[in-house]
Amino acid sequence: MERDNEQTFWHKMLAIDRRILYSIIFVFVAYIVLFPIGLPVPISAHTENFYSTVEAIPEGGIIWLDCAFQEGSWGELGPMVEATMRHSFNNNIRVVLSAMWELGGRMAAFALDNVLEDPAYEWVEYGEDVINLGFRPGGAAAVLRGATRDVYETYAGVDHDGNPLDDYTLGMEVERLHPDYVDFSVVYESGSPGGQDWLQYVTEPTGLPMGIGIIAMSIPSAAAFVDAGQYEAMIPGGTGAAEYELLLDQPGEALAAQDVLSVGMLYVTLLIILGNIAWVATKDD
Fold first, then answer.
1. Total domain count, the chain
2. 272 and 197 belong to one structural domain
3. Which of 196, 229, 255, 268 falls 20 to 30 Å from 34 in CA-CA distance?
């Protein structure tokens, strides 16, 4: 009788409607996206180094973040931009946003809006603590070279929304994209133009140190520049973004994504194990 009950159980397991299995993982994913678990993530040396580099910027300093990507890369790069802004604001570091890509200006604005929606940053004042210069046409080389000489002229005296830079303290304080005015720069890139353009037209001519936020598939090529000392620090892909959020103790989209991957893999592994047990238990029937 016990044997019959056992066989009935495993037969039922094999007969489960796949839509039920999909529904279960959907519920898990939806819950984790809304309420990240914050499963442990080992911190890589690259992310630890990036965190330490931002930590070393003096209070009141300025970090320049360039968004060289568009919507398709938001999942990996967007959380990096937000995490860097949060880290900067936590340490009273001011932020200048820009974009080598036309849609990058919108990505910068979206990231900034997400951060400022957090009540913890209601004290952040646009134009005083952060400003978004957005995208300027003319090609990355011309814009970057121009900004190293005169930011106001290069950006036509306006920010991303067309507001006069004269109205903002930070907009007038950063006269040049240069170590005399900026402490550190970061490029978040998913292609060209990107970090290598910034390296060629900004970092090498002026000596302004730079970091890179990179999509996973480009980590090997970017790591070569880190090893050579040309990029001072790197956030390696979506996993690096999750590690950064963990270091900040501020879980966000990236850590939620890692939770989803971890729970999803555990769920699939469990199904594989149960499926194999069921197959063995029923193969002689």
1. 2
2. no
3. 268
Residue 95: which of 233, 230, 188, 229 has the closest Cα?
Answer: 188
Residue 137 burial by Cβ neighbours in a 10 Å radius (0-12, 13-18, 19+): exposed
**What was the pLDDT predicted at 285?**
63
How far is residue 86 CA from its own chain's centroid?
Answer: 12
Give residue-wise pLDDT tens across range 175-189.
999 999 999 999 999
The residues, ordered by sequence, that sit 6+ positions from 104 with a Cβ below 8 Å of its Cβ are: 66, 67, 68, 69, 70, 98, 135
Query: Residue with structure tokens 């300093």?
Result: 61
22's torsion region: left (phi>0), alpha (psi -120 to 50) or beta? Answer: alpha
Digit-coded pLDDT (tens) for 3-56: 555 557 777 777 787 788 778 877 877 777 777 666 667 789 999 999 999 999
User: 């720069």: which residue's tokens?
Assistant: 185
Contact yes or no for 101/188 (Cβ under 8 A): no
Q: Please tell me whether residues 8 and 138 are part of one structural domain.
A: no
Look at residue 151 in the predicted model and tell me its pLDDT: 95
Residue ranges in the chain whose pLDDT is less than 50:
1
Label the pairing between strands 94-99 and 184-189: unpaired
Domain that includes residue 273, residue range: 2-37+259-282
Do 79 and 206 belong to one domain? Answer: yes
87 CB-near residues (< 8 Å, 6+ apart): 51, 54, 55, 93, 244, 248
pLDDT, residue 60, reads 94
Prior bond to 119 cis, omega within 30? no
pLDDT at 3: 53
